[in-house]
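1st attempt posting a full record on here, be nice pls
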Amino acid sequence: MYTRHTTISTEQIADVTLVAEDDALVGIYFPGHWTKPDWGTFGPLVEEADDAVLAGAARQLRQYLAGERTAFDLPIRLHGSPFQQQVWALLQQVPFGETTTYGELAEKLGDKNLARIVGQAVGHNPLSIVVGCHRVVGKDGKLTGYAGGLERKEYLLTLESPAKVPVRLF
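the predicted structure (as tokens):
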């Protein structure tokens, strides 16, 4: 297994560390990320341009942040418990520009009482942005927990806001 990482700068959300394992992206982390694994697990630092997986992820992330992309087409691999995998699969079904709640995700898993543990799984999503955990809000619509910080969550939701979609006149 060949794990490596690179750090890219973005105007919109500061530095982002991308982690790849073999032929797939496995992590996206921000400075101060709550649930970031030990740096030692990220493998060596490589130049973005020298790694096809990391270069592709960086390009698509920059396109997304510039408002030029609404979906990601990247090879990804998610490492987590079976329950986390279920939650992360549901996150991948939440469309660009839409939100869901922890309770709604819990109901889709068959038990609305799982909302708290769903929140923990969402918070441990290793592929922030690409697997849209920023699209999960509290039951009252309030912004709650985001491992990358609420300012970033607010920015990402604003970026995806329907108000950003240009009006087309016939």
